Amino acid sequence: MLKIRLTLIFFIIALVLSGVTAFPIETELHALMAHRGQMPDWLATFIGTAYEGISFANSRYPMLSYGNDWLAFAHIVIAMAFIGPLKDPVRNIWVIEWAMLACVAVIPLAMIAGPIRSIPFYWRCIDCSFGIIGILPLWMVRRWIKQRESALIGAN
Length: 156
Prior knowledge:
Layout: H1 2-20, H2 25-33, H3 41-60, H4 66-81, H5 83-87, H6 93-116, H7 121-155
Helix pairs in contact: 1-4, 1-7, 2-3, 6-7
């Protein structure tokens, strides 16, 4: 039970952290701009273009960043869904399975929407890695919950 809880707490923290980084995106990109000389050219170009676009949009159309605010909020709300499995993993295994489906869904979203939004292939691969990496702890938690469920059924 402890390993389930610790893994879920890790996952919750990772979700919240990945979400709140959407709030200060212009500041983060500005900080990265100072290190462009240490990056491969393709990455420096992408960071420069992203910063230019965000900076321009924020100066002329700040309401567009409201979408990033909602992205951050969604990560926090999704993280809150894991409170159920923290309390009762067997009863709330559906949250884990739903999250695993969401991790899988990252891949087609990145590969379909990415080219439409002119996101370079390597960046889409980075986005896909979040789904691939995210599913690993969820898969372990699901397996541990199933083992716990079997033990509880066997004890009755």
